[in-house]
Amino acid sequence: MSLLLSPGPVRVPEEVLLEQARPMITHRSKGFSELYSNICTRLKTYLNSEEVYVLTGSGTLANETNILNCCLPKEKVLVLLNGEFGDRLAEIAGIYGTLEKHSIPAGKGWDLKKAKPIIDSSDATVFAMVYNETGYGVRNNTKEIFQYAKKKGMMTIMDSVSGWPAMPFDQKEFMVDFFATASQKALGAPPGMGIVSLSRDAIERIESRDKIPSVYCNLHKHRENYQKNQQTPSTPAISIYYSLRKCLDIIDREGGIEKWAQKHKAASEYVQSRVKGMGFKLIPEPGCESWSLTAFYCDNAEEIKKAMLEKYKITIVGCKGELKGKGLRIAHMGNFQMEDLEFCLDALEKLAKK
Length: 354
Known about the structure:
Layout: E1 3-4, H1 14-17, H2 30-47, E2 51-56, H3 59-70, E3 76-81, H4 84-96, E4 98-103, H5 112-121, E5 126-130, E6 132-133, E7 138-139, H6 142-151, E8 155-159, H7 171-174, E9 178-182, E10 193-198, H8 200-208, H9 219-229, H10 238-253, H11 257-277, E11 293-297, H12 301-312, E12 314-315, E13 317-318, E14 327-331, H13 338-352
Parallel strand pairs: 1-12, 3-4, 3-5, 5-8, 8-9
Antiparallel strand pairs: 2-10, 6-7, 9-10, 11-14, 13-14
Helix pairs in contact: 2-10, 3-4, 5-6, 11-13, 12-13
């Protein structure tokens, strides 16, 4: 078995895996209501949000759910992007609304100085962007951008699939209306759960709509079923909900959500220092380095990736988009172990010297 250091799915500890072996129950039982309400209540507290729902599906499902519930027909959506996952967010926005998008090159990060003139000149009424661009390991400085867009009167949507809880986030402070993340990255759970978190304005938008263009992703139905019985509108993947609850237990056991983020920050600083010490150049511009993964330029990326797996049984991945084949990514998210990162970096250093 290889050491998994890809940016999702991530290593899942045995105590989490075993939760999936619990006897099956019906999703219309008191037992499931207790499980689901425990998860949603805790996530709501961690995120400082009004409401949270967990959908069986990927992070892309969570993002699509947020956009289709937010966007009115033909409503203009402004998307700032700097990588493949920003491209995907824009693709979804273009299906449910009228798209306006602006991009910056790979490795560059968004900040308010770059975003402000675009927001000022746009007539869009919805704003969306990615917190952490996974393809290049870039952390966008989103807090001030979302605050500015919201103060300009926009509804706001954040993709934080690889960002939270590796990096700090407070929904009220960031002024995000619709927030999305997923189970298989910094939460450390198996894949298969998309998480959406709502502000008061988001709830008002959902409840004011005559028709939401989905059955499965209709958040009005999710709200209705949760308020009635703490249940989901349709059958969820019950077994992995147990595993998500166990991951929340681990976060609490390790000191809570703030310490979880600090653990990720410390690991990122260590890995990035080691990588630079080997002579590699980081892909993100200074000040935009991700806390959940490290991305760096590598001329023989495919060769190194193959050797890491075949010689050391370590799985790392290449970059995406315009840097495909030109860089590598090492994840440090979820329930990672520092000794595993040490082993990976030692192996990388040996290969880099050849």
